């Protein structure tokens, strides 16, 4: 079954394109100062009392349709990956492949397999010019993909192809410019609810860097991006202008800050709750004259597009917004551990809700209790909102925190166990008469055994 899904997507030749990029990277590296490879393997067991983060309201509706349904699950996750590459003074080529097989004992459909291919390369043409190329191919489930942005936890396959060339030019010993382009293509498998729509995301940026001294660097950047869902005629163009700085207080303490503006233009369609509204420039319809946008079912009848189950219609719209984008973070190394904190605001694409504005706060920490026993604590808060005004709101806040203990037997073998808490809070719709916020909570415990082989290489570079 997994192979059939894998093959189904490759009719678009994304995997072939990836392998061509990968082969091209290695063809220029026939003679290298170092070849290396490093595999690893892990086995994880977990219990989760609400894997799909169902709210009480949704669970009551589900049980009315299907009877008594358990929402807890016990899972076994097997992961194998390998890192390999070649490098010298002038170039660096890196490749990583990963396979994760996830099996669950549950009343819900949770089983899935994830495949990841990641390629990165850089080449120094001369003392001033450096060219880099990265590409990635992912097949994963929407149970994990996009959780931070959408909060929708359905077991739908998602295929992602990304390619990103990058060029850096050294202006002087302390100044350089960097140009980057990135293209992402995302496709989804079939869904009974059709909440997901394929999309593409393209971005271009130009950044100027100035290294004032060994501690201080600042930069200024301008960028453009386009999010497009052609199936539903939705297009979001965005221009960003920002500046920032990186500062090293010491060899063990660094901090950075970035701030700027975004100018967002959205063109698409929205439901209008009124009778007999004629819509123009309509997207293409299915065989039955129906189609979905953001999980809502619409039907065309005699030139009028209605929201099924109501007297709503679709109307073309254009929306302009201006907003802030920023990032603040700091990292500190201690004698027995490390810690980092970050807070940011940006826009992120999703296949179910278009372009979203996301505020992220996260922290990570590690403390070495003994040489072999380590305590880890990480968590995050994500607040997401739509970039355009819609009548159906899915604005939400997502919380997660994970404390765990890890026993490092030696350099290769480790055993870790921990607890994970998750919570989602959904805001009521913008036109809703209710002020009640719906919530969902999850508690999970897990144990992970991991073995990572030492790197095999022709020599230490």
What does this structure look like?
It is a single chain. With 461 residues, the chain is mainly beta. The chain has one domain: Porin, CATH 2.40.160. 8% of the residues lie in helices and 62% in strands. It has four helices and 22 strands. The chain has an 18-stranded antiparallel beta barrel. A hairpin with a 3-residue loop joins strand 2 (73-87) and strand 3 (91-105). The chain is globular. The two termini are 42 Å apart. Mean pLDDT is 81; it is low at 1-12, 14-22, 273-289, 308-312 and 431-436.
Concise account of the structure shown:
The protein has 461 residues and is mainly β. It has helices spanning 2-9, 14-27, 56-66, 147-150, and strands at residues 34-48, 73-87, 91-105, 112-124, 129-141, 157-170, 175-188, 199-211, 216-229, 234-250, 253-273, 290-293, 296-301, 304-307, 312-334, 337-350, 354-368, 373-386, 396-408, 413-426, 438-452, 456-457.
Please bin the fraction of helical residues.
under 10%
* Second CATH tier, the architecture: Beta Barrel
Number of strands: 22
Query: Might you state the CATH topology name?
Result: Porin
Category by helix and strand content: mainly beta
Please name the defining characteristics of this protein:
single chain, disordered N terminus, mainly beta, Porin, 461 residues, 18-stranded antiparallel beta barrel
Please give the structural blueprint.
Blueprint: H1 2-9, H2 14-27, E1 34-48, H3 56-66, E2 73-87, E3 91-105, E4 112-124, E5 129-141, H4 147-150, E6 157-170, E7 175-188, E8 199-211, E9 216-229, E10 234-250, E11 253-273, E12 290-293, E13 296-301, E14 304-307, E15 312-334, E16 337-350, E17 354-368, E18 373-386, E19 396-408, E20 413-426, E21 438-452, E22 456-457
Antiparallel strand pairs: 1-2, 1-21, 1-22, 2-3, 3-4, 4-5, 5-6, 6-7, 7-8, 8-9, 9-10, 10-11, 11-15, 12-13, 13-14, 14-15, 15-16, 16-17, 17-18, 18-19, 19-20, 20-21
